[in-house]
Every structure is written in structure tokens, then in C-alpha cells.
Amino acid sequence: MRYLPLTPDDRRAMLAKIGAPDIDALFRDVPREAVVPVSAFDLSETKGEIEVERILSRLAARNVAAGSVPSFCGAGAYKHHVPSAVYHLIQRSEFLTAYTPYQPEIAQGTLQVLFEFQTQVALLTGMEVANASLYDGSTATAEAVLMAQRLTRRPKAILSGGLHPHYAETVETVAGLSGVVARAPVAPGRAEDIAALIDGDTACVVVQSPDVFGLIRNLRPIAEAAHAKGALLIAVVTEAVSLGLLESPGAQGADIVACEGQSIGNGLNFGGPYVGLFAAREKFLRQMPGRLCGETVDASGKRGFVLTLSTREQHIRREKATSNICTNSGLCALAFTIHLSLLGEEGLARLARQNHARASQLADRLARVPGVDLVTPAFFNEFTLKLPKAAAPVVDALATKGVLGGVPASRLLPHEPAARDLLIVAATEINTDEDFAAFETALTEVLR
Amino acid sequence: MSMNNQGRPSQPGIAQDNDIPTISGDRGLDLEARLIFEIGRDGVTGVDFPDVTVDDTRLGGLRRKGPVGLPGLSEPEVIRHYVRLSRQNYAIDAGLYPLGSCTMKHNPRLNEKMARLPGFGDLHPLAPRAATQGALTLISDLMTWLTTLTGMPAVAMSPKAGAHGELCGLLAIRAAVEARGEKRPRILVPESAHGTNPATAAFAGFSVDEVPAKPDGRVDAAALKAKLGPDVAAIMLTNPNTCGLFEGEVIAIAKAVHEVGAYFYCDGANFNAIAGRVRPGDLGIDAMHINLHKTFSTPHGGGGPGAGPVVLSDRLAAYAPLPLLVADKDGFRLVEDRDQLPAGARPFGRMSAFHGQMGMFVRALSYMLSHGRDGVRQASEDAVLSANYILASLKDIMSAPFGDGPCMHEALFDDSFLEGTGVTTLDFAKAMIDEGYHPMTMYFPLVVHGAMLIEPTESESKESLDRFIAVLRGLAEEAKAGRRERFEGAPRYAPRRRLDETGAARKPVLRWKPDPLPQAAE
């Protein structure tokens, strides 16, 4: 087996040194009745690279890659161009095959990247501090709600109807255990009056902008209403590129920001791994979940970086930790940091403007199709259309015409009658005019 | 044009003096990197886009008013920066990385290539069902491998790491307890457990009751049984445990746990010692997460991403979270809605958006297909053999608290061999850095004083193990000979000397900020 360096002679010599007659002797603590022969496993035997590559390539070929057809799926995961330099750098052995940086003297590469990542996330979200990443946007949102419950010592979280339904379900699963999670009604294309729902038990309101339908929400009045009643505003962003064109959640008064970072540096990967960005006001630092990297000096006075404030974390505080998280999304955070470093201020601004311009053009084209209405008056790179019939079969019909025409809202909200005819459509810098024409033509035909 | 070296050969005999500071701050191949915020500037970018103007009519009045504050860098600058940074990291590809309980085994590059096939890496999670059949088939194949290797009937695929898997398992247990109309607020956790175990139990709303270890490094089964009762929801046991030992009483423990109506959660971080040889399902386990980034070699990436699927017994399978993967006449589909559940399913909720760490699934299946069932078993045997070889080769000079019998995939030492030397476990570990090794796991598990937990994995050749053993023997001899200076200042030959962690925590600096503008002269 090509990954196993020991030879039969090595194994014999090692057993002799140990003083064991055979390998079974080393497993003597295992109850005999629990040991099974290898034939007990109905699985295949060792295979070479050629064979494994053939098997997996065939499986891959049965999927429709977003880059292989006109593709307009978003709703929390976005197809963007990832520069070649990102793929090259994140596959360097020194980044790819290192562990969590527990030995800072020989992990300054990872640690400095995390420090740069934290700085970028804080700048992008308009917040004071950011952590070294969580699993993804949805789990970051759940952690934000738990943090708000700890900070306010209040039980209730109010979720906007525009929050991605998968995020809402994730929050309900963990924050509903010891608290209360209330979901505001879904109002596609409109900003609900969430402020009216805030009461004295409310720990936080959770508002996504742009929301799951693509609508840009004004967070300022919600922040004011929340703060007036002693509650916190958690802002959720599923499309990180939007922060290059839109006012940051921090500037609008958010207390905690949970953001999906996939859009920058990371592929679609059928839903994971992604990277959760988590930022907050500095006064909430001690209640933050996850790892934090801090600047310090070494014994010779050189600047260096270490993991810090770990008394919040599970390996020190055990059952009193702020979160149980250990492994996070290190390599995805690295990809995010490298891509954002490549973009810089000007590149990000251009990318964001281009996304909005492309989506605007596409919205205008598709709204021309008979029976189709644009539901979202303000959007970044994603908008919602009302079709003259149920959207799910339309999407399937579009797929047979070689167009991945977005996400039917009913896939995310199966019990919401208002969602039945809604189609969530994203356009990015990837999409060409030809893609737009193909989509418009296919949609016209399918709806005819 | 080539350089003419004739007549000016290098002079290897000249004495080296490392104490002459360089003008640049770099030293030969040891290259420093400033922060991107210190080298970037306005008006430069590493990505070219056409500059389009957009009007504000569809931005809801929320167009950004000021810059983000990001530095501008060209592509060559960005590449040089991150290549320089990468060279300040130790990595498994560069040398033995014996972090106990973390399983730093070889990460095959075939797996990286497979995960980046466009059909996987560029597949949208909400693409129509017909466009994702290959991906769903892959998940199903991986589920078959995981359930077969563990002898468990079901597996929840969505947890994103080990601790997330623990949460998934405990939430399934909580749902099962509630479905029986019972209240069971307590979870029993051995004191040798990973910190994530008690943290997860608390996270899931349980109180944590610690179970002591016996002097032989195993959990005290009698004490555990004495703590069992109708208010106990589950025990969380790591097996093989964090001392690198197999819990030989595991079957009896499972029986006792089940007799009081509780569930048996197993922390599967150490499954790599027994995969292909022992099926956790045969041990009476009800739920166990599998760290794909440990046992099945998906790269650790400097702290993730991981993946932590959870295998479930018949008693818990119904409570697995959404989404569920089911097969029908048209192939596979994901059940994401409670109204379409297969018979008997009672999911406790959802762990995260979408359907789990697909990128890690591809890598793990690539590993499994490559090894096959025979290779998986051989890998476990080699991991255990290598750890025992290290234990046998070092226990005369270092101190092995449980060294009388064989260990599993990791060898545990304590610091009693350093007694009276003035050298601590930390010093010893830092001296290993100067020898070109990543230190072992230190001060964990907590049940042993000054613990040093060595996990060589199956990826090392005998020559590599022998060299490592020789170095540790040499260091132990140096410590015992009273040569403290080697240890106290270590590491000397790393990119940084010891760092001031206390200072970092006292006055946290967690992000770069521009220097304040100099005050204008009055």
C-alpha cells in the first residue's frame, strides 16, 4: 500500500524490539469477541491511483458543475472566480499539512495569516474585533445568538423572516435548547416590522442583509429599536462580496456580525467546507466563541503571533467554555485572506460593482419575460422573481435546457404558500451576456 | 549568462558566527514577512476587473460611504508574502509531527486532486436534484464505508468537525430521552476526556459529572457504574482513550449504561487505532463521531476544515438531523423538509446550512478506496505497532506511567524522568523544535503529570522512527546530565524564540491598526 512505509521485515524487527510475538499481542486489551477478521467488512480492497481516480471522476462527471453551464444559483453559496494564485498557495504543504498552531515558534505562518484574516474581517464588517473563523455562516449565526443570550442574560432570539431558512433552523436547533427562538413571518421583497416584536425578554434580533430573497435591509432603525430595549442586533451576511459596495453592518449599528465567507476565495463544494466570519464590538470580546490570534513579542523582542484568550475555550475551560468549537476553518480562512489580499480595496470595489451591475442587467432582462415580476426593489447580486407558476418545476425544466436557473424559494420554505412561485436568482462576475441570453430564452420557452 | 565560480570556491572552513545581526533582519533562507497592511498601498490590485459604474437606484440608500481600508498589492507581492509566511510553519510534509490525539498522518495528494474536480468542487449545494446525482452517490458510498467499518446502522453526515459531531450525537440522545418522556439532565465524562466533551455536554444543555481514572489509566468502571442512575442521559467515553489505552471493560460499561436506560456516546477521535479490526457497534456504542481529518487523512489545514460524521445505533438512528439522504426510483434525493420524512424518522433539527463537508467527503472516500479494507486494517496495525515501538524504545529513559502493557496508537509519558533536572515538559518539547521535530502533545491528558503524548501514526518509516527515538533519547540524557541551558532557551533555531503569551492575553492586540497620525505641532 503506497501510503504505508513499513515493510514486513520492519514490522518483524519492531515486534522483536517490543517483545511481542505478533501484532495481535498489541491488541490484547481488546475483548476477543470484539475483534473481527478483515473479511467481515463487505468493502473493496486496496486500489491504485488510476483506479481511484477513474471511479471518482465518473461520479464527478454525473454532476453539473456551475462553471460548465449558465448558472445562477445563490441563496447562501455563490459562484465567483477564485484567482489561480489562491489555489496554488493554499496547497503549499506548509499551510495544508500543519495542525492548529499550538507551537507558535514554528507556526508563525498560520498565525500571521490568522491575524491578517481577523483584521480583514473586522474592516469588512465594520466591527472592532473578529475571531479566527467558525465552521460557516449558519453555525456562526447560531454562536452569535448564544453569545447574545449570555451577554444579555435574556432568553429570546427574534429571527427575521428574511434570514436564510437553513440558518434559522440551525439557530433553532442549538439556541432553542435553553432559550426561545421566534421567527418573524416571511415577507419576500419587503422589510418586516421586526422592531415591533422586541420585548424585555429579547436577547437579540437577527437580520440578514441582503436577505435570502436578495433584498438589501436597512439595519439602522432595527439597531436603534433593539438597543432602546436592551437587546443586541446580530447582522448576518451570506454574500461577503456585498460588503465591498454596501455600508457595513458595523456602520449601521450591529453588535455582532455573522457572515459566510465562501464567496471570497472558496469554491462551492456542494455546501462545504466554507468559512464562518465572526465579528463583534470589542466590549463583548470575553464572550466571543472560537480561537483568537493576538500579537506579542518573542524572547528576543521580535514581533510574533500566538493564540490568545484561550481561557474562553474548551481545552482550558471545559464545561464552562464559551463554545465547544475546536477545529475551525483554517484553510478556508487562508483562501479568504489571500483572495482578499489580491483584490485589495480597488479590486473588491470593482468586483462588487460588477456583481451589482450584472445582476441589475439580468433582472431587467428577466423581468421582460411575460408573466415575470421582479420582487426585490433593492438588491446586490441576487434578486427574486415572481413567476406565473410554481418555480420548482420551472427550475427542473430550465436544467433540461442546460441552464441552472437559480433556487426555487419553495426548496428553502416548503410550507410557505407565498414562496411557491418565487425564484431566487444570482448573477456574478462569472456570468456573460451569452449566459443572460440563454437564461432569458430558456425561461421564455419554459413559461410559454 | 552563468556565473563563473572558477578561482573563488566557497571556504567551508571559516568559522560561523550567528550573532552578527543582518542588516535586513532576514538570515539567508529565513525570510521575514511584514503584515500585508504594512506593505500594501493605494492604487494597486492583484485582480483585474473592468471598472463599471453603478448608480444607486437599487441599493436602498445603503451604498458604502467610505473605503474598507484594505491594502492594495499586485499578484507577485501577494504570492511572495504568503510563500514567505508558509516557510515559517512546520508541517507533516516536512517532518514527523507526533501530536498525540491529533493524528498527523500523511495527506495523499490524490485526494486533493479529486476534491477539486469541477463536478465536486464547483457544484452548487442547491443545484437541482438531477444535476447532483454523482455527489449524492458519493455521499451514499461514504456512508456505506463508515457504517460498515463501525458496524453501526446509520450515520449523520452534516457535522463539520469532531466537536460538532459530539453536539450532533448528544442532541440525538436528548431527543431520544425526550421522546421517551423522560428527564435526564446528567452526562458522565471521564476526567481524561478531551475538553470538547464536557464543553459539548454543557452546550447541549446537560450538567457534567466527572468520572475518575484508575491508576492504570482506564476509566474507573466501578465509579462510573456507581454514578449511573435514572437521571443520566449518557456517558461520553473515548476509546481507545486519551492515554492511548483500550478500555477493556467497554462492553460491560455499555451494558450497565443501557440497563439504566442511558446512551453510550463514544468520542471517535482515536478510531484510527482500531479501524478495520474492531467495530464500535459490537461494543455497544450508540453514537460516535468520526474525525475524517484524523482517521481518514483529510488535511488539517492549520486548524481545519474538518468533518465529523456521527454513526448512530438503532436506538438513535431515527433522531438524525436534517437533511437525510434517501434513494428512490429516480436515484438519490435529500430530504430537507419534515413533511417528507421516511417512515420513523424524527430528526432533532439541523446542524448547519446545506449538507456537510462535501470537500472532505471526497478526500475521505478517496483515502478509503485507495486503502481498501485491507489497507485500513494495515494502517491501524502500523499505527499501533509504531507507537508501541516508540514506547518500548524510550520507556527505559523516559517515564511511561502505564508502560507495563502495550499501548494503542499513541505512547504516553509523564515528566517524572525529568524530576530534579530543572527541565519541564514544556522545555523538553521546545528543545525538540531545535532538533527539527514538532513537539508531541503536552500536558494532556490531564490525568498524568506533565504529560507527553506521542502519536507517530502509520506514515513513518522505521528509519524515521529510529531517528526520532535517538533524538528523544539524546535529549533525555542531556536533561539528566544537567545540561539545562539546551532546554531553557529553546527553541533557538526556529523562526521565533519563545513568545510572550501572558502579555498577549493581558493586553490583547487582535488586529492591525494604522499608526495614529503624529500630533500636529502647536
Task: Write the CATH architecture name of the largest domain in chain B.
Answer: 3-Layer(aba) Sandwich
Strands in their spatial order, largest beta sheet of chain B: 1-7-6-5-4-2-3
Structural domain count of chain A:
2
Number of strand elements of chain A: 13
CATH topology grouping of the largest domain in chain A: Aspartate Aminotransferase, domain 2
Integer tally of domains of chain B: 2
Present the secondary structure layout:
The complex is a heterodimer of chains A (448) and B (522).
Chain A: H1 8-18, H2 23-26, H3 49-61, H4 84-90, H5 93-96, H6 108-125, E1 129-130, H7 137-152, E2 156-159, H8 165-175, E3 180-183, E4 202-208, H9 220-228, E5 232-237, E6 256-260, E7 276-280, E8 292-297, E9 303-308, H10 314-317, H11 330-367, E10 373-374, E11 382-386, H12 391-400, E12 407-408, H13 409-412, E13 422-426, H14 433-447
Parallel strand pairs in A: 2-3, 2-4, 4-5, 5-6
Antiparallel strand pairs in A: 1-7, 6-7, 8-9, 10-11, 11-13, 12-13
Helix pairs in contact in A: 4-11, 6-11, 7-8
Chain B: H1 36-39, H2 75-86, H3 109-115, H4 118-121, H5 133-150, E1 154-156, H6 162-179, E2 186-190, H7 196-203, E3 207-211, H8 221-227, E4 232-238, H9 250-259, E5 263-267, E6 287-289, E7 310-312, E8 324-328, E9 331-335, H10 358-394, E10 411-413, H11 425-434, E11 441-442, E12 452-454, H12 462-480, H13 485-488, H14 501-506
Parallel strand pairs in B: 2-3, 2-4, 4-5, 5-6
Antiparallel strand pairs in B: 1-7, 6-7, 8-9, 10-12, 11-12
